[in-house]
Structures are given as C-alpha cells and as structure tokens.
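A reminder from the course coordinator: this example appears on the midterm review sheet, so study it carefully.

Given structure:
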C-alpha cells in the first residue's frame, strides 16, 4: 500500500511517521511530502531511507492514502487533487472539518459512517478529540444539556517555533523569534489562534462546533475558553457538564473506564489525577477529578488530558486509516 505523508518534516508529520511504524500499518511504499525547500532531503522510516518529494510527484504516484498535516491552505489546494487521482485523504487541518459534505471522524465514535465514497476525511481539532472521547459515552447514557470547557493547551499545538520560543525563554535568551504576542514562560495566554468577530478565538469556535458534528447531536449547548500554557506534554481541559438526566458517580467512572481509548485516573486520596507530564507519548485520553458540581443539580466537573500530537492529531488520523483498511473501504 502506498501511503503519502504530506507535511512529513513538521511536528505532527513526524509523529504520524512514528505512529505508522509503531502500529505496524501496512505501508509498502512510503511517499514523504514536504515544501519545495525540503524536496530531495531524506527521512528514515522502519530502518529505510525515503526521499522527500513534491506534491505533484506524490499525486502522480497515486497513493491509496494520504495523511495531511500541512496547514489549511495546502489542504484546500491539494487534497482535491489527490482525491481526483483516487487517493483517500485524511486531513489534519481545519480546512474541511465543518464542510457539510465531509466526515469529521473520531474512530471510536463515528467511523461507521465512513464509506468508499469518502475521499477527503477530516481529522478533528486536537482539543475536540479528547473532549468528545469523554462526552460521547456520557451523552449516550445521560443526555448532554450544556458543556463549559476551559482548555490549558501545550505550546506543541502551535508548532516547533513555539516550542523554541518557550525553551529560549526558559534559557533566558531574548533573541528568539516570538510566535506568541507575549512571553509564554511563566505565563498563561487566553488566546489560542486568532480572534473572530465575536471575540472568541478560532480555537474556541472549533471546540464549540466540532463536537456536535462528530456526535451528530446539536441538542446541547457548548461554550469554551482556550488558554495557552508553558507546557510541552499535552493539552488539559477543565469541563463542566450539565445533563438532562441525573447520574451516579460510580457509574460514570465505570462507563468511562470501559470506553475504548479512555483511562480513568481518579484517586484524589492518593493524589492520582491526569497530567500532561503523564500523557506525553501516549495514545489514550485520561480523565479524572470526577465530581458533582455542588452549585446545581445533574452537573459534574471533570479534568481531561491527552497528548495533542498523538491522539489529538497523528494517532487519530492513523486510526482512521486503519479502519478504512480493515473494512476494505480503500
């Protein structure tokens, strides 16, 4: 099987290659794709070297699958060209997520909606993925009414230059190029992505819209505040959930612990709870601090953490590809 990785030299692209190798995805011919300045350079995959090629060269080779992580503008331009050549594109940008004709997929929730006709498949926002992994099983049991989510997002979500900025600030180097409008070290920025006309950031709007599409349910309300913090390991979310029906906390923990891809870490007596430090390099979504909201009925608080480069991006995309292969949809 020919597999193209578009954006192979970027942070998510590199993790995609790592996850493909770790999960032993059936790659017979890897086609790494990057910007023109990287064409001709070589990368290593499963102990072999592969030369980075241009977009057109990759399209001409007609891969069965193309994993995209190269930004929205690139996806808008080239994903349809790959699709026209018969390739199934799994795109990690925001370009296609809210397109009514494209599926927005978290495999544990809605992969069953996929068909052979889906040639461009959208990978959700990293913060959305870890959120819906917890919301979905609880919604099935108790029916969501309202969700309030506050995120604490790793600098890795912005990319390598943001990591460089943080590390330079830690080292006391003021010469580094600034990705953020302010210092990130010893700080918290209540801005992830750019502001829209309504004073919400694009990241917040993604969190407010994407879960409803993935879960095929627009009956509940959701609002979000997204904050960038000086962390590299993963994204964290403080979530307040109001349900239509009341719940039992022991049953909630049981439901979540039996949900594939979710790990419950919730033993406050022994100071056990999810942290980005623990999630880094792992594919699971971790949930803890599960407790009733004492201010109103049928409402709970919980804390969700996941590695935003893995389940929040690369791993979810590879899982979609695995589903397509396993169900002969390619």
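Designed residues:
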């Amino acid at each position: 099987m020919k597999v193209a990785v578009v954006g192979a030299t970027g942070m998510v692209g590199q993790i995609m290659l790592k996850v493909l190798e770790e999960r032993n995805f059936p790659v017979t011919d890897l086609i790494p794709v990057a910007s023109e300045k990287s064409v001709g350079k070589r990368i290593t995959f499963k102990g072999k070297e592969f030369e980075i090629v241009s977009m057109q060269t990759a399209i001409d080779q007609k891969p069965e699958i193309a994993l995209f992580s190269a930004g929205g503008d690139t996806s808008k331009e080239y994903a349809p060209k790959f699709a026209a050549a018969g390739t199934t594109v799994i795109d990690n940008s925001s370009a296609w997520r809210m397109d009514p004709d494209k599926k927005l997929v978290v495999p544990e929730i809605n992969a069953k909606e996929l068909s052979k006709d889906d040639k461009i498949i959208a990978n959700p926002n990293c913060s959305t993925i870890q959120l819906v992994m917890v919301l979905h099983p609880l919604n099935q049991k108790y029916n969501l009414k309202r969700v309030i989510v506050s995120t604490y997002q790793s600098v890795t979500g912005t990319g390598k230059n943001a990591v460089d900025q943080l590390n330079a600030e830690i080292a006391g180097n003021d010469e580094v190029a600034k990705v953020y409008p302010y210092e990130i070290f010893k700080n918290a920025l209540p801005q992830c992505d750019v502001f829209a006309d309504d004073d919400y950031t694009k990241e917040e709007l993604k969190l407010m819209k994407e879960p409803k599409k993935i879960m095929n349910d627009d009956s509940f309300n959701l609002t979000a505040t997204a904050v960038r913090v000086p962390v590299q390991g993963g994204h964290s979310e403080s979530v307040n959930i109001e349900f239509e029906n009341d719940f039992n906390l022991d049953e909630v923990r049981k439901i979540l612990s039996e949900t594939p891809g979710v790990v419950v870490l919730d033993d406050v007596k022994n100071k056990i709870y999810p942290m980005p430090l623990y999630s880094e390099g792992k594919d699971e979504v971790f949930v803890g601090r599960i407790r009733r909201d004492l201010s109103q009925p049928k409402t709970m608080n919980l804390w969700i953490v996941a590695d935003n480069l893995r389940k929040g991006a690369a791993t979810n995309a590879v899982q979609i590809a695995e589903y397509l292969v396993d169900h002969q949809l390619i």
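Residues 2-124+313-326 form a domain with the Rossmann fold fold (CATH 3.40.50.720). The chain has a mean pLDDT of 97.
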